[in-house]
Amino acid sequence: MIKRDEILTTGKKIILGVLFLAGSVFAQEEVHYEYINVTHSKPVYEEIEVVKPHRHTSDCFEEYHVQKPRYNNRSSENNIGMDTIIGVASGVIIGNQIGKGNGRTAAKVIGGILGGTVANKMRNYKHVDDSYDDDYYYETKKRKVCNIRHSTTHTKRVLKGYKNYFVYNGKRLHKFTKRPKEQVRVTTTISF
Q1: Do the domain assignments include residue 1?
Q2: Alpha-carbon distance 155 to 51, whole Å?
Q3: In this prediction, what percent of the chain has a pLDDT beyond 90?
């Protein structure tokens, strides 16, 4: 249940908010700009550290070795080579000798498929069998890796801007700008 004090507190907050908004809507403000003469300008410097890289051209490349396969991995590829074609032809010839009529046609097809498969498997088996430790070779390559040695370091003064000094209402003030100024603009705002 909401208490009576909470309702009054919330109501007071709403009334104060409305009064604040109404006051800011009806509040008036007057802005004046004046140009004040600068008495003097003082340069502002910053000390920065400059590092000049020094390259050694003899260190720009390094050699590395890459292990590459001597043969392509043919067991995962489906290559049709001359041996596969000969195997298919042999299978068709043998299949032609077996069967009669439509059975002969089926025997040719099955013989061709079996002959091609056997020839392909024999080729892949031969390459796997021939390549134990010598199935890789090493290729020497160069890559660019320049050693940059930061041999020269010195500090340098860099101009950041200027402090422009002026007197306003009896106070000595300054305004920072990128260039020296003869006058600075002072903004005066009066709210009522």
Answers
A1: no
A2: 9
A3: 19
